[in-house]
Input
Amino acid sequence: MLDFVYTANPVRVVFGPGSLDRVGEEVARLRHRRALVLAGPRLDAVVDRIDAALVEAGADVGVVGRFDGVAMHTPVEVTEDAMKLVGSVHPDCVVAVGGGSAIGLSKAIAVRTGLDQVVIPTTYAGSEVTPVLGETDAGRKTTRSSPEILPETVIYDVELTLGLPAPLSVTSAVNAMAHAVEALYAPQANPAVDAWAQRAIALLAAGVRRIGVDPADLDMRSDLQVGAWLAATCLGSVGMGLHHKLCHTLGGSFGLPHAPTHTVVLPHAMAYNAPAAPAAMAQVAQALGVPDAPGGVYDLVAEAGGPLALRDLGLAAGDVPGAAEIAGSAAYPNPREPDRRALTRLLEQAWAGRRPGPAEECA
Ligand code: NAD
Output
């Protein structure tokens, strides 16, 4: 019988082409006037548009500071630098534009100051609708969750994603897919999360298949963004399992890039969990339109020209046992017990880039 507890995360979502220009209205709607803008690299023109939209929103609304030193995995040293700017310009809100790194910094500032956040994602990573913050300090990435971390408003402007290069689009979309896959076997899964996850997987897979054909196809980009939003809503609603723990370890302790690591690890983590989560795997396979979910994800990535091996992302073979040890040492919800030796085998497969076989071969 169904038996669950579900609490929705209250985020306002503004979606549509050109919606970047509504950032001024959104800041004013929150009754703020002094925005600190955080931006990923090469986004000067977008920051200028934010500036103009804020000025247009009304008297005294404007940008009081800009910070573009964002870095992946939210290192605390970068947050400390940004906090110095907060201390000198006294913003009353944060506007962040960029991928998960810019949004991570926004959350790190919000949790330290209580400032409201308007965030404008330009990748499919999905941090924008979760109350979760991962921070890296002295080589260890730790995660915390609290209501102040959740952004108040998200603006999804598909036009900002048109320039996301195809290889980055593929890895970012598979990163999003991982949220939906793990949601399907999460202990707190419920019918809403299941529906979002299945729709997200189908939209993201369709986008990944089309991205190489025309990366500037607005409809395809819009579908990818919807898929990313739904998948991220799953991520913010239920606990993630082994796959996210492995990627978190590889990123936080071994410096591997976030989205490519998710892309390589996902089929292997799925194959490991498949014997213990047959219903979730059947749902993923159906959404992908393939007979075998882990192999289907691997083939999707291979056909899109995405990364398949951790060795190509810079992991040394000698780091595999250490990564398995860290990933096996913490508690997290997962349908199958994480066994240290089996995790080492899983990571060896992912390191070499072998296609995962049917679930029982990996059991
Ligand atoms: P990112 O923000 O570092 O962006 C990846 C690269 O893409 C960067 O070089 C960036 O400059 C570039 N880029 C971004 N948008 C672009 C665009 N539209 N056009 C061209 N280039 C563009 O990486 P990411 O994968 O978006 O996010 C990863 C980070 O987010 C990690 O730190 C991860 O831990 C975090 N994250 C957190 C959550 C959460 O819920 N807390 C969820 C997902 C990701």
About this structure: The pocket of nicotinamide-adenine-dinucleotide is lined by residues 40-41, 72-74, 98-102, 104, 122-123, 125-127, 130, 132-134, 160-161, 163-164, 168, 172, 235, 258-259 (CB under 6 Å).
